[in-house]
Automatic annotation (TrEMBL):
Residues 7-200 form the Hexokinase N-terminal domain. Gene3D superfamilies: 3.30.420.40, 3.40.367.20. It comes from Modicella reniformis. It catalyses: D-fructose + ATP = D-fructose 6-phosphate + ADP + H(+); a D-hexose + ATP = a D-hexose 6-phosphate + ADP + H(+). The gene is GLK1_1. PROSITE patterns: HEXOKINASE_2. GO terms for molecular function: ATP binding; D-glucose binding; fructokinase activity; glucokinase activity. InterPro entries: ATPase_NBD, Hexokinase, Hexokinase_C, Hexokinase_N. It comes from the Eukaryota. This is Phosphotransferase. Keywords: ATP-binding, Glycolysis, Kinase, Nucleotide-binding, Transferase.
Length: 458
């Protein structure tokens, strides 16, 4: 067997300018293809049926839920106008048992969580209906502002009897079973929610991005270009790109570790882009590389090529461990020792071990930031001249970004912005803003529910 050196391994994750350009070109091609394709296997570029952004003056009280890859958030959202909101929110972890169980069990649980929220805020409206906006972080084919067929569920979900069914019916059936008078008046994707909610407080927002357990993006497109759309006539519409499902292996710079992650995932050859940049998979990339390096005696030589049992389980090296290690700025990289001792029971790392592990983790994190920046550039270029004005010196374009990777991973936002500027050039890049958009799912869902329920233009 050829010995894999440390430099060989790390360099697999270093992107050249040519590789970055291939990502931009490839994603752009898929963005264009998604505007017209009616192939049910192509879940990209889903019309949201939302045709305008909020003004910032909206008011009212609405329920919202945000179902992501890790947690369910339930919220009572009070829109106060002037871009201000009051939110009472509760977070519930989605267990592995729920993720892989029946659809009925999942939606009964969601109804129970909603009931808990209503008790917490002492919200009793008698027999009147409570209006709810729903953010659903999985692929749906929207058929109306409050209806959508579930197309696919990644992120470790394997629910039975859900794919192909209408999400409004699934949710409201659960509410009926739990005696809750709640009606779903709007369904949006989490990235659409991020875009809508951040536009409520920052009108220059043109793109919404999620960088968390998974990743996705939404942007504003001229409806005339969305040839597969057959709804009411409108000028512009927010599209849920589902860029997580983009990324054909022909243009993605996949390493052997990326390919292994894909092959062992629930759905191989699906969400290949997401598997290279998101919070669920970055730590696993590190683990696979570490296992390889240990076996080749390129690090932790005192283990004599034997991988510790604690490092052998799939997904055992969490992305949050990468954050812990990159948060340590000391030359000794003591964060590496902390993670390996407390989590994996491994002691005795040499200064060279710590330095190499830090460099591996930094390089994988930097690749994720650069690839996400490249995807944002593809969206900016696709919308340029329509809803984005890249060459207008007086135009600022804001990208609202929600998610733990963007918020908590050290230097991720800085690395993204540096990559954006390098790709677009200093002049264009200086007019792009990356802003944290917290809790976009719930607030965005409430905003769209308000507009839909009040009969506004959506």
């Amino acid at each position: 067997m050829t010995t894999t050196t440390f430099e060989d391994t790390v360099n697999q994750f270093v992107l050249s300018k040519e590789q970055v350009q291939k990502i931009i070109d490839g994603l752009t091609e898929e963005l264009v293809e998604g505007l017209s394709t009616t192939d049910p296997k192509n879940i990209t570029q889903q019309p949201s049926f939302i045709t305008r952004l909020p003004t910032g003056k909206e008011t009212g009280l609405y329920l919202a839920i945000d179902m992501g890859g890790t947690n369910l958030r339930t919220a009572a959202v009070h829109l106060l106008g002037d871009g201000q909101v009051g939110v009472t929110m509760e977070k519930h972890e989605i267990t592995e048992k729920l993720k892989t169980g029946t659809g009925e069990a999942m939606f009964d649980w969601i109804a129970d969580c909603t009931a808990t929220l209503l008790k917490s805020v002492a919200l009793d409206m008698g027999n009147s209906e409570l209006q709810m906006g729903v953010t659903f972080s999985f692929a749906i084919q929207q058929t109306a502002i409050n209806r959508g067929r579930v197309l696919a569920m990644g992120k470790g979900f394997g629910l039975s009897d859900v794919i192909g069914r209408d999400l409004k019916d699934l949710l409201e059936d659960g509410f009926v079973r739990k005696n809750l008078n709640v009606k779903v008046s709007a369904i949006i994707n989490d990235t659409v929610g991020t875009l809508v909610s951040h536009a409520y407080v920052s009108p220059s927002t043109k793109i919404g991005v999620i960088l968390a357990t998974g990743t996705n993006a939404a942007y504003i497109e001229n409806t005339s270009e969305v040839t597969k759309y057959n709804g009411p006539s409108c000028d512009k519409m927010i599209l849920n790109t589902e860029w997580d499902a983009m990324g054909k292996s022909s243009y993605l710079p996949q390493t052997k570790y990326d390919k292994e992650i894909d092959a062992k995932s629930h759905v191989p050859k699906f969400q290949e882009f997401e598997k290279m940049v998101s919070g669920l998979y970055m730590g696993e990339l590190v683990r696979l590389a570490l296992v390889d390096l240990i076996e080749q005696k390129a690090i932790l030589e005192f283990l004599n090529g034997k991988v510790p049992e604690s490092l052998q389980p799939r997904l055992s090296f969490k992305t949050m461990f990468m954050s812990t290690i990159e948060s340590d700025h000391t030359p000794e990289h003591t964060g590496v020792d902390k993670v390996f001792k407390t989590t994996f029971g491994v002691e005795g790392l040499t200064p060279e071990d710590r330095s190499r592990i830090f460099r591996l983790i930094h390089t994988i994190g930097l690749r994720a930031a650069s690839m996400t920046a490249a995807a944002c550039v593809a969206l900016l270029l696709k919308a340029n001249g329509a809803t984005v004005q890249l060459d207008n010196p007086n135009e600022i374009t804001t990208i609202g970004i929600d998610g733990s990777v963007f918020e908590k991973y050290p230097h991720f936002s800085h690395n993204m912005l540096e990559a954006l500027t390098e790709i677009l050039g200093q002049e264009r890049g200086s007019r792009i803003r990356l802003e944290l958009a917290r809790d976009g799912g719930c607030i965005g869902a409430a905003l769209v529910a308000m507009v839909a329920h009040s009969g506004g233009a959506v």
